[in-house]
Write a structure and sequence with these properties.
By secondary structure, the chain is of the alpha/beta class. It contains 14 helices and eleven strands. It has a single domain, classed as TIM Barrel. The site of one iron/sulfur cluster (SF4) has 11 residues, from helix 11.
Length: 350
């Protein structure tokens, strides 16, 4: 069987944009217990207006449909550790559905009470924008909460070998968090954690104050150099350069489809769904189908192929897989020279 990566390269060569997914990202819930200043979609203050989790049996059906077409599963939120049946869902994903890799993204606040989930994961991604609790107060995380998350990151880092998962930290670059990024990188290097970062998005575009700040460019240049020297940075050099130069790139959003808690498949990407035009939206509900192919056919029938020209929103979670899929030489260079501590099948955990 031809691997998905090669099939997608062939599709690109033929000018197609509807690439096969490399992973599926399921929002287990939209409920959250934090109110990060930069969060545009979720947060505790939005909880009352958000859909809650769909119930255990519906969630398991959604995963069954996903597994019929996708091998790698990412679970995110909101805050997924708020979902009481998360362990059962993880067990189903691993033992019955046999997803090849399972990754969980969490804000870390509840992790110390839910350590039983660690052995069910291949990767754990904790959102942490600074190793300094005071800096985190600038993005609206209280100091006690920030201290608890940092402690949870240390605790999880120490458990990686025993439970057989890889820990990553995902940091959002904002004007407030930027000054502490060097320290965060040192913190991650000391604890054997991979660090990825992405610029704060504002209305689907990197925040203006960042783009115009010399400190932002200086940090990206430093990160490129640090990665070359072996720092545990997950972002590819291609992505860091794209951010630095703000160069447009070909985006292939169907590589990483998103599914909302109640089963709606977002097509082709969240920014287009939010824009609400004719290019994308909530295409079909996975609770109404039995296979991924049925869902995908319905989505394509409704919205067609993803657009060939897009404003390139630079969102890491779409940009990084697009770059690595469409630039095989860059991928090869990453694997040969920079991937000693970086797992490039991971893509970006933003
Ligand atoms: S933890 Fe995540 S989902 Fe919750 S408010 Fe912060 S960025 Fe948003
Ligand atoms: S650049 Fe952004 S808006 Fe455009 S297709 Fe990619 S993810 Fe969607």
């Amino acid at each position: 069987m031809i691997p998905t990566y090669l099939l997608n390269l062939l599709k690109i060569a033929r000018g197609r944009r509807d690439l096969r997914p490399r992973l599926a990202m399921y929002f287990v819930t939209t409920q959250c217990n934090l109110n990060c200043a930069y969060c545009e979609d979720f947060g505790a203050h939005r909880n009352p207006g958000q859909t809650t989790s769909p119930g255990q049996e519906n969630a398991k059906h959604i995963l069954r449909v996903l597994r019929s077409g996708v091998a790698r599963l990412w679970l995110t939120g909101g805050e997924p550790l708020l979902v009481p049946y998360l362990p059962e869902l993880l067990d189903d994903a691993r033992e019955k559905l046999r997803f090849r890799e399972i990754t969980l993204i969490t804000n870390g606040t509840l992790l110390s009470q839910r350590l039983e989930i660690l052995s069910r994961l291949d990767r754990l991604v904790i959102s942490l924008d600074s190793s300094d609790p005071l800096t985190l107060t600038a993005v609206n995380i209280s100091q006690p909460c920030a201290e608890a998350v940092i402690a949870a990151v240390r605790q999880a880092a120490a458990l990686q070998t025993r439970h057989g998962f890889r820990l990553m930290v995902n940091a959002v670059l904002t004007p407030e968090t930027l000054p502490g990024m060097d320290s965060l990188l040192e913190f991650c290097a000391r604890q054997n954690i991979l660090l990825s970062f992405s610029p704060q998005a504002f209305n689907n575009w990197p925040r203006y104050e960042l783009l115009t700040a010399p400190e932002y460019r200086a940090f990206l240049e430093k990160a490129l150099t640090a990665k070359t020297r072996g720092a545990p940075i997950l972002d590819s050099r291609a992505y860091l350069r794209t951010l630095l130069e703000q160069t447009p790139y070909d985006c292939y959003p169907t590589l990483t489809p998103r599914i909302l808690p109640d089963g709606w498949l977002v097509y082709p990407c969240l920014p287009m769904e939010k824009a609400g035009g004719e290019q994308g939206g909530r295409a079909i509900n996975l609770l109404d189908v039995d296979t991924w192919q049925q869902a995908w056919d319905a989505a394509q029938k409704r919205y067609g192929e993803p657009p060939s020209a897009c404003h390139s929103c630079f969102q890491q979670c779409y940009a990084e897989p697009s770059l690595m899929q469409s630039r095989p030489l860059e991928l090869l260079a990453e694997r040969l020279f920079y991937s000693r501590r970086v797992d490039l099948t991971t893509y970006a955990p933003g």
